[in-house]
Design goal:
Elements lengths: L17 H14 L4 E5 L3 H12 L3 E5 L12 H4 L2
Parallel strand pairs: 1-2
Length: 81
């Protein structure tokens, strides 16, 4: 199910292209420092977005179904060292 089809999702943003990135940054700037944000997905893009929004002063929570974040991108010996 695509979340953008759920009623009441006006604040939901996907990140798939440059236009989405511009929309995300504009929303972050409009929200201002301290605004709460949830990033869903702990892969490379999700963690980069989390870092970028945190540097902009937003309060970001990163949610992912796996642990730790980037678990598919890093080798096991890095994850458990």
């Amino acid at each position: 199910m695509r979340l953008d089809t759920v009623p009441g999702n006006e604040a939901l943003l996907y990140l798939r292209n440059i236009a989405d990135a511009d929309r995300l940054l504009a929303s972050a700037d409009a929200a201002g420092a301290g605004a709460p944000v949830v990033v869903v997905g702990g892969g490379y893009i999700g963690t980069e977005v989390t870092a970028a929004l945190t540097l902009r002063g937003l309060k970001v929570a990163l949610h992912d179904c796996g642990w730790p974040a980037l678990n598919l991108q890093l080798e096991c010996n890095l994850l458990h060292s």
